[in-house]
Amino acid sequence: MTRGPLFAVGPKPPPPPLPLLVILLVVAVLGTRGGSCYASAADRPQPPVEIRAAVILPADAKFIITLSKVMPVLDIAVRDLYAKGILREADVTFKFMQKDDKCEDIEAMRSGFDLILNGRVDLFLGPTCDYGVDLVARMIKFWNAPLLTTGGFTNDFSLDKRDPKSKYFLLVRTGTLDFQDIADVVLSVLNRVFFRYSWKNVLLIYDIDGYWRVSGKQSCGLMAKTLVEMFKGNASIQYDTFDLAKNPQNNLTENLRNEVGPKYTIMVVCASPSRVRDILLAAEELNMIDSGEYVFFNIELFSSLNNESLTPWYVSNDTTERNERARKAYGALLTVTARTPNNDAYRNFSVEVKRVAEEKYNYTFGNESVSTFVTAFYDAVLLYGLALNETLASGGNQSDGAAIVKAMWNKTFTGITGDVNIDANGDRIADYSLLDMDPETNEFKIVANYIGVKQSLEYVPGMSIHWAGGRTNPPPDTPACGFDNSLCKTMPGYAILSIVLSSVVVILAIASALIYRHYKLEAEIASMTWKVSYNDIIKVPQDKWRMSMTSLIRRNSQRTVISEDLMSLMSQCEYGRQMFIQTAFYKGNKVALKTLKRSRLELTRARLLELKRLKDLHHDHLVRFYGACIEPNYCCLLTEYCPKGSLQDILENDQFKLDWMFRYSLMHDIVKGMCYLHSSELRSHGGLKSSNCVVDSRFVLKIADFGLRSLRNNHTNESNSDSDSYAYWKAFLWTAPELLRLSHPPPEGTQKGDVYSFAIIVHEIVTRQGPFYLGNIEPLSPKEIVDSVKSKEKCLRPSVADLSCDEEVGALMKRCWTEDPADRPDFTTLKAVIRKLNKDYESNNILDNLLTRMEQYANNLETLVEERTADYLEEKRKCEELLYQLLPKSVASQLILGQSVVAETYDNVTIYFSDIVGFTSLSAESTPLQVVDLLNDLYTCFDSIIENFDVYKVETIGDAYMVVSGLPVRNGNSHAREIARMSLALRSAVHSFTIKHRPNDQLKLRIGIHTGPCVTGVVGLKMPRYCLFGDTVNTASRMESNGQALKIHVSPQTKEVLDTFGTFDLELRGEIEMKGKGKVTTYWLLGEKTPTTEAGTADPAGTTTATTPAAITATATTGTATSATTTLALAGTAPPVNSIGSFSKMHTTNSVGSSSAKSTTNSIANHNNITASTPLLQGDNG
Fold this sequence. Notes:
This protein is an alpha/beta fold. It contains 41 helices and 31 strands.
């Protein structure tokens, strides 16, 4: 048997002979396995299935994967198989048969044959050494037994294994390492990091037996072979190989100098950790590390969680000097390794493995960590259990290795080493990590992860690669001076002479330029380009400004013509706070006008020079100085106008939402402006505070009130001459303590004083509580605060407790307001700190920053609009709900839209009328408030009952109650049934109704119902009413007035409709004389038979059967007590609706249903007069 391409790298050992006896044994075993065993099994009863698993691994502890380490893992895995319910112990048992293969291919094959000859083998766990996997994996397909291994790293095993004819058909790899995957990771890193910087030459350094403890001989040789195959497929990579086995250890430094230094600057290394350390020490000796022009890329085939993997440069038995050299050399090393789980579950599992190994297998791990190559056998057993369970469930058996292996393909589950994804080729898709040494801790940390499922390299947030030699980017493909310094040749003498002469010429040119600049400066000072004529200034009168603003506020339809700055004033200041600055127009530009309290201005050379400097000062974060007017009695300064107001105004405006992106941007703007100001000839500000940090229309913060400090201070002192005023002392809250202690501080201030002022502003931005917020401390007046700051004993500062900001911001404030000015950072340092805080929110593109800020402002306005819209919609909903209680929804919707409501005819509806017998006498014997409570309780009860029926309440007039069904929404013939059931429910409720002030009296309800045609319409525009017209209304009223107490009087028309349902119990009353109708045969409604359909189901009439009246009555009665506590007039919200002929009744309803208790009392007290004026209810006339 030949070993094929597996031995393409390194010395090729002679292939072992395969004797004829071995081949005959294979044939004999195959015949035995397929013959008598299965014949005899068919005759036996079915005992638990025994899985005979062959564990073929080295026994020598020098290897990473050994029998004594793996067997505890297998025991725990079988236990968890049963515990998780994947397999049942009563159905399946495992028998592990151990064999020592010594990590040799022939021993592995011999172990396999021995186990097969001694009995059936259902599963092979191992071998893990590549050459042993190669031989055993070729044989297992003849034995139809799967082979699961955490080894088998070479790319030969990555070839397609799905075809039963392939060499490794039944091989499944569950380990966390694959040479092909590592090659993909290396190529991904090279493409992602190096080749974007024009890297193209790579040297592959390998020690052919570098990691023999993991996978046996030629481990790194096979890894190098895989990388070479990968590089061959990439035309952009120029590569070469360097075999350490062919170069003696004592000549390593010389070999690197001769073979590596002159050709390559990037090296991929695969060797044992000790050999990697020797390579890096040799590179450090050749100055490859300090130059920062060489990068080493280490492939680590085995890693662990112990400190040796985190600090591989340190060797305890080496000298301190060599360890220090190694530490520096490892700064040029990047390491790729299999991703190791680092969680509590894995650590607990490792502890359990060590315990079982010591107790059952007499093996002690000591400080050695449990390798993922060992723990991955746990995942292999879980995978086999899942596949076996699936195979047995589908009718297969444990001897069908092909079916079990196919069940493992494309399988995903959670194992002890993380998520286990087996692809369609039976290989685990593993993840890998890229490690770099942190120069602060000198430990290797993960900077990127290669996600195997995504096949992508993802950087860890907040982590970056540290390059040797202090570089911020990878070094170039070729050193600056070339590999042999040929590009940095020494210059000849004539070149030196040329440089000297050129230098003299340059010096003379500079001197000439300085002289020219001096005379030009004097000319510019004399020209006074900053001077502004008063006639060019167009002022805006304050009274006209206020008048125009008020006019625009009143005319909402014209708000679109308001300029952006005016809208800012209106929205943020309630036309006040930002209007203290006087504005004017100068050459078409709106400017801020600062009038000086001087009749004339003396122009000294120093003042002229300062005015020129202000005119020439241009920066995005400094207010532009247009000029100054020095005409007598009109002295003023003209600066850029920023319509959004000052930073102080924005911070005090609670409606303006400031997220941290916006706050950091404001801080950054201040720092950039101050940094430029400090580097200019002005040197300092001297009065920095939130009130002179202004914001323009694009939300860019600009610093104002700098320069000409003598003029500004004089103006300030005059305006704040009262030293006891609040405003006078508040102006000093931003002043540094060392300046407060001076009797005559410099007018222009100091740079360190500006830093202190910046700290107070940052505190304002963070807290939005004004300057010098002291938290829970008792509030102090500005004078008390200034005195405490000035005092060296107290050293009062704003409170930084419980700030909702990053700790770096709090530390920044403390550094800036420290007592000693020398300890405060300058604005250049602050600029770097703020840029770091703001790096996620701000780009280097000015347009992007402006757009981001405008978007933030727009979002803030959108939030305010949404809140106002939500409030409006909520109020609209309440109004509509109230309107829908007064009018039908369809009618109300038409009225809201401004449409006229056309009268509508209904062919058949049923109308209900009821009255309380003896209500007049009951009212006479009760107080008005008692009558109100009685009617409120009664009609609240009625209202809760009728909600369960398809009816519409028309009106309540005193003790009368009118309801209709069949309008405004037609419901076929169900209207009669709905009214009948409602009547039964109301009558039942009256039986149990209790009058609170006369609990022993029984309330007697008289009910009449009638069915017939009807016309509806809306009457009037002021307080429109939904009215019913037609003889049906009169007849229904007369049915009630001719009825009897606690009885339901039914007309023949209603009786005819009710008979169609066949569920109502009606009793003939006989003929009665009815006004306008003559003699009419009427009926009493006694009740309803129990419906055959369940509540809520459809009946033959096509409507839904309502809940039984008794149940509804019980529900309504229960809720009466609660509703009775309200003081609503009569029955809560009585809709302003009327029926034909009841116009006096309409007025009565308004009186009784009004919210005034007085009018309600009077209306009920005159109940006798009310009923006399409503003949339709009494049946007096037609």
